[in-house]
Every structure is written in C-alpha cells, then in structure tokens.
Amino acid sequence: xxxxxxxxxxxxxxxxxxxxxxxxNPPTNTGPLCGNGQIEAGEICDGLDxxxxxCVELGYTGGTLGCLSDCSDFDDTGxxxxxxxxxxxxxxxxxxxxxxxxxRGKTCITQGWDGGILRCNAGCASYNTAGCWFNNSGSCPxxxxxxxxxxxxxxxxxxGSTLASGxxxxxxxxxxxxxxxxxxxxxxxGSYDLRLREVIFETSYIDRxxxxxxxxxxxxxxxxxxxxxxxxxxxxxxxxxxxxxAKAPVSAHREDGTDVLAAVKAAxxxxxxxxxxxxxRVILDFGPISNPRHAKLxxxxxxxxxxxxxxxxxxxxxxTVIETQDAGGRWVVRKITGKAAGDAKxxxxxxxxxxxxxxxxxxLTLAHxxxxxxxxxxxxxxxxxxxxxxxxxxxxxxxxxxxxxxTKVTTSTLGNRIHATxxxxxxxxxxxxxxxxxxxxxxxxxxGKTEDRFVIMVHGDELRLQFKAxxxxxxxxxxxxxxxxxxxxxxxxxxxxxxxxxxxxxxAGMKTYPYAPELWTHxxxxxxxxxxxxxxxxxxxx
Length: 542
Description:
The chain is mainly β. Helix content is 3%, strand content 34%. The protein has 3 domains: 1-134, no CATH class; 142-217 and 392-540, no CATH class; 246-382, Jelly Rolls. It has 2 helices and 39 strands. A hairpin with a 2-residue loop joins β26 (368-369) and β27 (372-382).
C-alpha cells in the first residue's frame, strides 16, 4: 500500500516523524493525534499553541504528518515557507534548519536550505527544496541485527560503491570488497542471523555477501582497515589490525585552544562539534607510548551529506589526514587515508613510524568537500604488538529476498548519526526506481562470488541472511564482520537529482557511470543474458 498524496501545490511533506506529545497513526487513519483529538482531513497542527497543539484547516487530504510542538506557523505552502521554521526563540533564516542535536532548544544550523517546505523537527528529517523526505538520505541497505528480545535493531548502513549518474568525482574503477564491523553481533542457536533492508530513495546491487569471523585471544580486539578510498585512486584494503588496550587521548583541543576531550573519548554518538563552514579537525596527544612502531589509530566517524558548496572552501580533501609537527612547529602531512562512508564506521589506521615514544601529538583532519563533511565521534591509540588472527570466511546458508516495507529514518547531521526504526510502513512511491529487480524468494546462488550477478534491491526490499557459526576455541574471542561487494544507485545527490532507473547495471572495473553501451562487458555474454532472464523478473514501475 502506498502513502496517500496531498493536494498538488499545498503540502508536500509526507510521513514526517511524529514528535513530542503528538502520536503517529496508522496510514489508514486520517493523521496524527493533536491535543485530545485526531486531525481530520483538511487539518494539520499549526504549532501556534505549543502546549495544546492547536489544529487548523490547511487543505490536508489524509496521511500521516508529524504534529510537532516545536514547529512553526503553517501556510498553504508548508511550514511558514517564506522564512523557515521557528528554532528556539527566533525564526530560522533562509539557510538554516533545525539540526536535531538539541531536542529542547531546537538549535539551528546552516544546511543549504534556500526556502520551501521545512519543519523545525527534533527528529531531523532530510531536507531539500522540494519538501521533506525523512528517508531520502543515507546509503546502501541498512543492517539490522537481533536485539536480544526476539526483535531487530538498526546497526548501521553499508555505504561503499556509489553509482552517481553524471557525477564525475566518483571513481568506480577503484571499487572493491567492503568490510563492515558488526559490533557485538553474536550467534544464537548456532547461527548468525541478520537482515539488510533497503528503505531509502535508491537501488542496491549486491554481488557477494559473506560473514568474516576474526578470532583472537581474550583481551584483544580486531578492527578492519577498510574505509572509503576510491576517490583517492586505489581500492581500499580489507585487512585487520589488532589492539589490546587502545587508550583515549590525554588531551584534545581545537586549533583555537578549546578543550574537546570529552567529545572524542568514546563512541557515544556525541561527536566533535563542527559547523558547516569548519573542518572536523582536532589536535590530539596520547602521552608516552612504549612501541611506536606498532602504533595504530582507531577512529569512529560518520559522514554528513549535504550541499556544502556555500560553506566549505578549498582546498578540499576526500581523505582523513594525519599530521605531526616538525622541529619548527609546522604541521607536516604524515598519512593520507580513507574516510567514513555513510553512517558511523570504526576502522584502524597503521601509524608505525609516524609517532615517537615521547611525542604522540598529532593533528587529525577528517574529509571535507562540497558534498560531505565527516564528523569525529571517537579516537583512540594502541601500540600493542601485532598478532595474526584466525580468519574464517563463511558463506550464507540462507538468503531470502522479500518485501519488508519502509521505516522511519533520522538522517545524519553534524550532531547525530543515522537512526532507523524497525517498522514496516507502506512504501513511498517516489522512492522507487523503474526497471527490473530481482524476483522474491531464494537468492542464495547469486551471493557466492563477485561476478556482476546481483541481488537487486529496491525501496522496501529486505534480504534475510543466515550463516552457520563455527565452534570457538576456549580462551578466544570472536569479532564478526560483513564482507560485501555491492553497489548502490542514488536517486538524488545534494547537488542534483540523478537517476530514476535501475538500469544500466554496473560491472566491476567500469571507469564511469553511466557507460557507453559498447563498454558493457556482458553485452555478448549468453550466460549473463540467462541470469537477467531468470532472476531479474520483477518489473518496477511508478
């Protein structure tokens, strides 16, 4: 069932998050609860009565709209479209929206808004000039893991190999396997079960999926070295570094001297403060270490994808840059490495030969360019001797594709990472891309190896994966990672709308997307034609 549409020319914000005292209703009802009654067709919460959530006539024709106690006055184009929503005690200016980091104070930050329909929304919907798309931002399928209570919880996204039709700064020839840390993921009844859900405005193409189990002695923690590096002109490594007692910095300051140690000591979702015109940059000191040749940095960060062309200025960087000071106190680049990809990722960087025993001071600058600004959640340093972990790659024993529905998504901002619920809401028609998707059912034969034979997932699809859990030896601990070779087609980018179609299908090694038809490596491949005919039989139209 698709969400109802609103009258053209009036409101275009569908299915916004319901916040504060207002309660979301099922899509078959007429709207959210407002005060002590339900909004009827033709009404919407006007936000003028912050306590009682007064409703007013607005030509609303049904569906679910967030009845927000902190929203601004409304007019027939949306939420006070001329000046923006109310944030705190003043109106947001034309380039400001509520960032959602302060649920009560409704802090505003610049996010490239230039007018249109916005809500000052503590849930932080994703915004563009056409309206409010609460689930239009993010990347790749979202990973859901068991919550330990017979339910499922959002873990993170699988951002990696981006297809961006017509945007040249993406470099698909350097895409490869991606490795995702699954945190505290543990087996139950001898199996690892996880779900991949495609809930946002895109299409994903999964070529291979495997579980990588890394066994190390108790007290040791392995981290992947994978990060997003294709824009640096090479395929990212998917190896591992081990830590035994990674420690937080003893000091952390901004360049103006502000103490920010509390913001970077732990991966708690409260990141290093940064504004849209600033860099995520911090000067760190970890104190004396014993083994500088074994030093490695562990970073947790996420990307914020907005149009930063008006705020971020060159020189730009699509990398995480690590610098140390020379004898004259000048900062010198010592390491250029990958960046966060989508939602919060944790990865390790080898710093052997960069630091000394008595000088661990460094300057860390995260990626920043006109369409993304990485934010730092946590950083730690370890200098324990490396060890060789036992690595087991497990192919899925079950892989089932089905329709899972949409859900609510809080997009990432400079103050919060992505959050997604595990609801099963009606599909968003405008999120679908036209073309041929993979049929529902068993798709296990498509995921065994990288060969451009994809499980194609569109908005609303869910892929259920199950892996057998090998026995673990006494005295060892296990960390699980997801190895995925996959692509995702963006329907829009902060700079422009990109594509509304599933085709053309990507292929390994292609240098641009879309590509000239004669460059498609499978154009004369009869077995590939059989794959298309056999598996991609679900026609998507909108």
